[in-house]
Amino acid sequence: MAAVESGEPWRLAPHQLLDAFSDINICAPMVRYSKLPFRALVARYETHITTTPMILAEEFSRSHHARDADFTTNSEERGTFSLVPDQNRSEAKGKMDAVQVRGALVCQLAASRAKPFADASQLVSPFVDGVDLNCGCPQPWAYSEQIGSYLLRQPETVRDMIRAVKSRLGDGYCVSVKIRVDSDLSNTDTLVRNALHAGASLITIHGRTRTQASASHPVNLESVRFAVEAAQSCGLQTARGTANGDAWIVADGGAGGRVPTVVNGDIWTLDDAVNARVQTGARGAMSARGLLANPVSVPLTSGSFFWKLQYT
Ligand SMILES: Cc1cc2nc3c(=O)[nH]c(=O)nc-3n(C[C@H](O)[C@H](O)[C@H](O)COP(=O)(O)O)c2cc1C
């Protein structure tokens, strides 16, 4: 248990965090908002994984001006959390108390082709713990550029993009995909299966279709559950064997090594996060507008915000 004895927090990729620990909270990608200061803020209050705003891969890989404008980070922005591992593995059973774990940072990229996606991923990879492919942006300009929600019905393109990053950065590198559900769920099924067979490390599912606005359509947790079950039925175990250092003890924890899924949509409080996880079977919960409205909203419900105010 060298990492624990040395006092260094464990450093795990996003899919490993989701595999090893229940109740992982995630800050959604938000154009204009989920930049460094906001990410650093929510990371102080039990948001374990944070995500950059969507960055255009083509421009990012071509221009250092775009890189300077679109992405900043520092060594302080990730939080350190005290988490109790799920203990399914026999080595861990009954042995594990809470461990100190470093939060993770994900860079979300928008791309329509494999090469720019791989190029941008490679450039940003030294500074983040994983990259995410945007398959949900519903804006007309994005759709006509064949990025974002356009990809919801392009499973082969998504597959090729994931494969390109995996072959560039290695099988263990975290490549996630953030999707919306489709009005025809067979398209969601095909997309999820293609992504997973290409090696996707985790899938985030926003429970609205590309024509449903957040303001007027409540999230459809049933369709998220459908996507979660499609992912689980693939039986793929990308989390297994990819944990580093002492973290191998908790890898293949509660998720059984299965590729984890994350539910997104209308999560405003800790209770909403718990409810969404229970209703859909997803391992993690992602919030956008909830965190924007109140960056401490998740821990506020659990009382830990007050704990932190008193003791830090
Ligand atoms: C201001 C704002 C910016 C957003 N930018 C992005 C983005 O860059 N990439 C993305 O995948 N989704 C983006 N979204 C969608 C959110 O990540 C999320 O999927 C959606 O808001 C539903 O979650 P919520 O109900 O918790 O708000 C954005 C949402 C908001 C409100």
From TrEMBL:
Domain DUS-like FMN-binding: 27-225, 259-296
Active-site residues from the entry: C137
Role this protein plays: Catalyzes the synthesis of dihydrouridine, a modified base found in the D-loop of most tRNAs.
Stated name of the protein: tRNA-dihydrouridine synthase
Pfam families the record matches: Dus
Reaction catalysed by this enzyme: a 5,6-dihydrouridine in mRNA + NADP(+) = a uridine in mRNA + NADPH + H(+); a 5,6-dihydrouridine in mRNA + NAD(+) = a uridine in mRNA + NADH + H(+)
Binding sites annotated in the UniProt record for FMN: P29, M30, V31, Q108, H206, A288, R289
Record SUPFAM superfamilies: FMN-linked oxidoreductases
EC nos: 1.3.1.-
Cofactors, names only: FMN
Enzyme class: oxidoreductase
Gene3D superfamilies in the record: Aldolase class I
Stretches assigned to coiled coil: none
UniProt keyword Cell membrane present: no
Family: Belongs to the dus family.
Sample GO molecular function, one term: flavin adenine dinucleotide binding
UniProt keyword list: Flavoprotein, FMN, mRNA processing, Nucleotide-binding, Oxidoreductase, tRNA processing
Record-level GO BP terms: mRNA processing
tRNA processing recorded as keyword: yes
